[in-house]
Amino acid sequence: MQSFLVTGCAGFIGWKVSEKLLEKGIQIVGVDNLNDYYDVKLKNYRLNLLKKYKNFTFYQLDIEDFCSLREVFKAHSFDAVINEAARAGVRYSMENPFIYMSTNAMGTLNLLELCKEFGVKKFLLASTSSLYAGQSMPFKEELPVNFPISPYAASKKSAEVIAYTYHYLYGIDVLIVRYFTVYGPAGRPDMSVFRFIKWVLEGKPLEIFGDGTQSRDFTYIDDIAEGTLLALNSKGYEIFNLGNNNPHQLSYVIELIEKYTGKKAKVEYREFHKADMRATWADIEKAQKMLGWKPKVSLEEGIKRTVEWTLKNWDWLKDVKL
Question: Which H or E run includes 226?
């Protein structure tokens, strides 16, 4: 039986990636610090779903804690490490840039150093479309991503660079997946889709930074997880965009939420944030050719599923703090 380490396993993407691997019978060792950047009710919900699998083992620790991580590597033999652990959120990274660098860059370095020490030959790093700020769309993997406009993006760029170094020096296969605006059931409450659905159901006004015409390449969580698993089959050093390849304006997302909740949204507009990107759009030709991957879930179907999940779990979701 193969054994993988998945960091950030109680996070949105880390949870879904872990779940799909567990369903394939792979032994998963999950690591998460369960921090309170957003309401831990969601992290515990996801974690409890993973704990139902007999082939899942969990450690509550931080990837910044090298000594504790090393004990995990000593106790298990890993075929691959999937690093989904990260401090997320563009705006908050401006308030506390130090924690972003220490987790996203130094945490990644800790994992790579342990891969070297314990002979783990495959490392997958979750990265972000935020790196493409200022580039022409659709974003291609070979674009120079040297001008990050937030500490979050800068920390992810740092992680990518140190990962390449360990590939070059020690022959570790490094696969980098750049995610584009992931949403879906049990999503992050600091992201627009979760917040907008909750606010609409509560009858509260939606806070929009900008005029609603900004567009995102919204990508459904199951598609993202499937692409991540396919990327694990690659060798060498590769970067893959995982996005829907079909950007939509924020205003259209609100229309869909109104449609599937049956409620009218109240909207309050705020000044556009300097660290935000006005648009994202993934060129996924490389993932299609090399991985045989393309997204299957349309935005319309994805929002419908997310609204249905929210309504089904409203008894506890109504108490989730935004």
Answer: helix 221-231
